[in-house]
Design goal:
four-stranded antiparallel β-sheet
């Protein structure tokens, strides 16, 4: 006997289930149909309340959070120029950036393994540089010369805290 058959047997041997079954079978056909329809409505209501209502509520909450975060982002983006970097960098970014990048690297003791001009951008390659030092250098490039990182690929180097960098630097 399968587990399903055993469950059916246990279910049908329950006194309350037998009483409900006898009551249902004693009803006229029209009343049985009404009980079936009401049963399905109860089942569908429970499914809605247990599955779909929480999903709808979570979706509304997520939309509200997204709207709040977008308004915060837009506020920060609108005021970014007021708090350093961008206003100073705007005047500093005229002219080719390759000499500025190579001079800044030399001044900060950063070794560029390879660099090349790509239109108005500069592509750089650095192997085994300390991550914190690279981030500090790019922040100073942004603040001092108006040069920002537009694309970057970082791979972990052999030593902890060091990375291999492939980046594209762009004037603001």
């Amino acid at each position: 006997m399968s587990q399903l058959d055993e469950l059916k047997l246990q279910f049908s041997s329950n006194a309350q289930v037998r009483a409900a079954s006898q009551w249902y079978n004693a009803l006229p056909g029209r009343d049985q149909t009404i009980v079936k329809v009401l049963g399905w409505l109860v089942v569908l209501s429970l499914v809605y309340l247990m599955v779909f209502a929480p999903l709808i509520k979570d979706n509304r909450a997520a939309r509200t959070d997204l709207a709040d975060q977008l308004s915060t982002y837009n506020l920060i983006a609108e005021n970014a120029g007021k708090f350093g970097g961008a206003s100073q960098a705007a005047g500093a970014s005229s002219g080719p950036i390759l000499p500025k990048v190579s001079q800044a690297a030399r001044n900060d003791g950063i070794k560029l393994d390879r660099y090349e001009q790509d239109g108005s951008d500069v592509r750089i390659w650095m192997d085994g540089i300390e991550f914190d030092r690279f981030i500090s250098w790019t922040e100073s490039l942004q603040a001092r010369d108006g040069i920002r990182v537009s694309q970057i690929t970082l791979d972990a180097a052999e030593l902890p805290g060091r990375v291999d960098v492939r980046a594209t630097l762009t004037p603001n």
